[in-house]
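ok posting inputs for the zinc ion job
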Amino acid sequence: MPIAQEKPSSRPRRHVNERRQRIQRRFRIAFAALGTATMGITPVAHADPDFSEGLPDGGIHTFCYYSVSSMQSTMDAAMTRLRQQTVVDTAYYNPCDVHTDVRWVQGPTDVPAYGQTTCTLAWDNGRCDRYRVRLNKAVLDDAPHPSDQYRKTACHELGHSVGLSHYSGSDYPGTDTTHSCMRSGDVSGQDWNILYGAHHKGSSHISGTF
Ligand SMILES: [Zn+2]
Ligand SMILES: [Zn+2]
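and the output
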C-alpha cells in the first residue's frame, strides 16, 4: 500500500505561495499558447508549484541534527549529495541555532509516512527561515527496500527544504523525462533515488532560489 509522503499544509501564509503559483501558471499558459501558435504542437502541461510550506530564504543552507539519531549518516550523505548536484552550499551547525535552515529529526511524522518537511519558522515575506526535516525510521524500516528508501526519502525531504514539490507517477516536473528523488512513493535501487532532476536544479527552481 502506498504511503503518503506528507500531510497537506494548512498554514495561514499559504496564500502567499498560491498567489505566486497563480502568476506562474499564467506565464506557463501564455508560453503554452505561444508554442501552440508557432509550432502547431500542444505541449503537455505539468503542475509544478513551489513547495507548499514556502521557499527557503536562500544563502548558505545551514543544517544540524536536532536529536540524537541513528540515521545521521543517511542525513549527512543527503547534504553532501545536495552540495554536489546543485548550486546550494551548506554549513553544519552544532548545536542547532534558532535560524539553522534544516533541523534533521528522526521521529514520527504527523500521519504515518516515510518523512515529512515543515516550515517551523518563517520570515514576514513568506520565505522559510527554518525547516524541520523528519525521517520516520519506524515506517522506513517497513518499506519494501528500507536502505534504498532511507536514501531516497532523505533526498526527497531535503528537496522540499530547497523549495521543491514532489510529483507522482510519470507526471514529471517541467520538461523532465527522467525520474528524481522528488517522485513520491516506494523505491528500489534506481539511480534517481538520490538524484535531483534537471528541471528542479535549474533556474526555475533551485538555481533561481539560491
Ligand atoms: Zn517547475
Ligand atoms: Zn514530498
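notes: DSSP finds six helices and five strands in the chain. Helices lie at 14-39, 72-85, 137-140, 146-161, 198-201, 206-209.
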